[in-house]
Each structure stands twice: as C-alpha cells, then as structure tokens.
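Hi Y.,

Following your request, here is the sequence exactly as I used it, all 328 residues.
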Amino acid sequence: MIIDVHAHCIPSDFLAWLKQADPSTGIALVETDRGTAVEMAGRAVSQPLRDDLTDFDARLAAMDRQGVDVQVLAGWIDLTAYELPSDQAVAYTRVHNEGLAAEAAKAPGRFKTIGTLPLQDTDASVEALNYAMDELGMSGVELATTVDGAFIDRMDLDPLWAAAESKGAFVLLHPMAPLTGVDMSLYFMSNMVARPAESTIALAGLIFSGVFERFPGLKFCVVHGGGFTPFQIGRLDKGYEMKPGLTAKHISKPPSAYLKQLYLDTVVHDAGALRYLVELMGADHILLGTDYPFEMGDDDPVTFIKSAGLTAEQQELILSGNAARLFG
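Below is the corresponding structure, written out as tokens. Let me know if you'd prefer a different format.
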C-alpha cells in the first residue's frame, strides 16, 4: 500500500462555510486581480483559490495515476488562520477540521487526515488536537513554520508538543510565508528558495531550542526534504562545537542527532538528493510526498523513488512501510 504523506485540499464543506461567512468570523472572500482570495483580519492572506484543491474526483484520479493508494489529507497552508483572534481561530479550525474529516469519508480507505490548529493560542491548540484525534479520527496535525511572522520555536508550545507526543500525533511542518520582509518577488524565488529556506530556519530553531530533546518521541516530518537543513547539517554541528555558549543552551547533542529523530518527505526533485537523504537519515525516516496539487510537487512519485538507485528494501520503506508504521 503506497502512502503519500504530503498533500493539500480545501474541504468542500469548509469552502461552503467560507462563502457564507459573516463578518463576525473575521473571514471574507475578496476579489483580487488574480482571482478570489481569502481575507482574514482585514488583509488578504491566501493566493487565489484553486479548483484542484476542491475537486475530489480529480484528486482520486490523480492518486490512481500516480499509483498512490492512500493520501494523507491536510489543509492548504495559506488558510491556517493564525492571523485571527483566538476565539475566531478556534471556531474556524473546528469548521475546517470537521470539513476535512467529512471529505476523507467520501472515499473510505483512501485517505488519512491531519488537521490544522489555532497555533496562536497554545491551550486552544491542545484542545483542538485532542478533538481532531479523539472525535474526528485524525492522525495528527499540519503546522506552519511561522505564526504572524514569528518562527514557531519562539512560542511556548511545550504543552502542545507534550500532547502530540503523548497521543502519537503525526506532525507535518510546512513553510508558510516567503520569508516575510525579504523581497523574493523575482524569478519565482518566493517558492523555489524562500519556502525551503523558511523550513530550514524553523527547523534549526526547533532543534536549538531543545524541542526534540525534551520530546524525543514526536512523530515529526518536514516537507520538501527538510528544506536546506540536511545539506547544511554539518554547518549546524560545527556551530554547536565552536559556539556552545550560543548553541548548546538547550541541547546536549549535536544538531544532527536530533535531525535523525525526524522524518523528511521525498519532494526534492533530484535522485542524488534523495539518495543523500537516505544515506543521512536512513531509509526508515524518509516518507513519500507529492505536495499535490501544486506545480512544484511531484506528479510521479513512485517512478521517482523506484528510479533513484535505491535498494528494494529502501524503496519499500519509503513507499509504504514507514508511513504504515506511523499511521497504523
């Protein structure tokens, strides 16, 4: 059974709610020169809405074409609602996650789900995690790298990490903003460079702040092959060795030791890069991802993995074995 752990959608029930949301929700659909976008707290926060995020039949057809048996459905990272006041974000998150669960139920056996959280409120996030897993049958959550411009290692999320570890939640870390405050408008760099760079900064912060030392049992996956972190992990280890007064306040081992506790997906678009990730992490810590339905995703992931020069055992772990173990 081949499992894709990195895919996005806008649940149809949730979209219907967006279309009729009243001002008290803090949400509105607005027309821009590029199409319909979502506005939160008075500012547009999403790219234009895309039909392929809501077309359920096209999703199933794409999965069949790709050879994917099960897709782990997550929301669209643009629609996390971290900009909203806590009470509005809690209500928004409930509607979104219930819609996501309903979407998956349309095709039994083809989907797992990971919800979103009102991450600007730690206590509410713990409650939302419990509801998502206990009441909606979700497998975990997707988190963005930043909350209103601040990287998540700067937030007091230990109660959430503790709850996620205790419940065996799968946590998917995904970049959100194209490096806020940096002009990345040329050459599509906002996607090609800024998104993996944002994951790199967030992951380094989580490592050095001691999250993975305090919560070694977290089932934590970083998309896009972990950004640039795996390819510069030696530099992080060197900094840990040379500047312990700055880097070793919260950790007792080199950063590479914590990186190897985590999981990375396969959306790297280069066979040599995938082989390096397998060498660095072990095949048992690499998960198939597509980033469906986006153009920068991998539309033929099974072929990519099978043609990357990996052993049959490594392929089996990446295609299905690891995810089957994590998702049960």
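The radius of gyration is 19 Å.

Thanks again,
Q.
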